[in-house]
Amino acid sequence: MAHDATNHGSATKRIWTVFAILSVVTIVEVILGIIRPAFLVETHLLRMHLLNWVFIILTIYKAYYITWAFMHMEHETKGLRRSIVWTAIFLICYLIFILLTEGDYIFDVYDEGYISWDF
Amino acid sequence: MDATAVKTGTEGKIWGGGEAQPLKASYGKMMMWFFILSDALTFSGFLAAYGFSRFKFVNQWPIADEVFTHFPFLHGVDAPMYYVALMTFILIFSSVTMVLAVDAGHHMKKNKVIWYMFFTILGGFIFVGSQAWEWANFISGEYGAIETKGGKILQVVNAEGEQVALESFAVELPSARTQLTKSEALWYESESSMPDFDLAEVVEGFKANPDLLIRTQLLTEAGEKTILSREESLAKLENDAMGVVQGANLIHNEYGPPLFADFFFFITGFHGFHVFSGVIINIIIFINVILGTYERRGSYEMVEKVGLYWHFVDLVWVFVFTFFYLV
């Protein structure tokens, strides 16, 4: 992270660029959330609206910029970066997979009427 | 960062980390990263549990656009999500001023660090205040709803499908129920207030207004709530209605499954607590910057470390925003 007088300008420029990216992505998300385009809502991919996939991908895109640019992850050593990012991504993916699978199963149990939940 | 010359003021102390710098990061910064990792996993646990509950109630979850519709000073205006979007901007912008403070710290510009940190703290306070306002709206509720025996929520809509507040049509009935006061009861029994209307009054009012319909929580194929016909509505009220609910708390929730309110309070509350503690930590470092502690130490690395925490809070909000308000 060799910050010296020569690249001061470029560091600030990077910060404002990232701010612009984050703002634009947030505005796009809100607009999509309000108009909810029909073709994105009607198309399904892996049991979810395409719109939800768009939201999730845009969120991960924002998270990448916050971590890499604002938290200076891009200047850390490869070892530190991997020990943080890979650990988090692996455990979170695993957690999401088991919990959502289980939630889906429980919904089916109720939905098929083994247990009544609307009486 | 040069691996050699980071002073933290803890040299020689047992918790100073010593001279060794594995992965070319100082002890404090690396520990901040690992704290953030564990905190990120905590938040992931909460959000994944939210996902679990949502999948469990996947055909009847509330639609966020219909729940969060308020904007300050615009009463009665339907403003879905604009205020949360604004809150998101405030938090992202305070992240920007924070990273600018860190950058100014690298160049040992004390005054710039002071100003940027000041704006960061200000943004943090505005965000926490906004969240409190969001909570207040959510708790007091808007239209009110009818709860069924099965714990489901029935909302009332007019012929255009717009939601109608229960108090606007509930009739006044002579009621046998009076407020329980201490003078009427044992010393440990009393109730704070009585609802303005009860189920019988709402049902009578519903019968008197022929254009009112019941909306259930069930989502149609198009992702909208199911609206019953007039006959079905009356039958539903007759057979299933159990009581009225206004607003949301941990047990009753006029917007849908109580779990929705539970997770809303728990996750945004936990995040709000992080913002609040972030503001406090920022203030401590801000005072240290003004006192010249880091100027004397020759390094503004402490600003960078609290900056990491502050950006993390922003990072979490990005996910909370997506999963509570968008998806």
From TrEMBL, chain A:
Domain of life: Bacteria
Transmembrane segments: 15-38, 50-71, 83-101
Pfam families tied to this protein: COX4_pro (PF03626)
Membrane topology annotation: Multi-pass membrane protein
Key words of the record: Cell membrane, Membrane, Transmembrane, Transmembrane helix
A single Gene Ontology CC term: plasma membrane
InterPro entries in the cross-refs: Cyt_c_oxidase_su4_prok
Compartments reported by the entry: Cell membrane
Record's protein name: Cytochrome C oxidase subunit IV
TrEMBL record, chain B:
Keywords recorded for this protein, A-Z: Cell membrane, Membrane, Transmembrane, Transmembrane helix
Subcellular location: Cell membrane
Entry GO MF terms: cytochrome-c oxidase activity
Highest taxon listed in the record's lineage: Bacteria
Name under which the protein is recorded: Cytochrome c oxidase subunit 3
Entry-linked InterPro entries: Cyt_c/ubiquinol_Oxase_su3, Cyt_c_oxidase-like_su3, Cyt_c_oxidase_su3-like_sf, Cyt_c_oxidase_su3_a-hlx
Chain segments annotated as transmembrane: 31-52, 81-101, 113-133, 263-294, 306-326
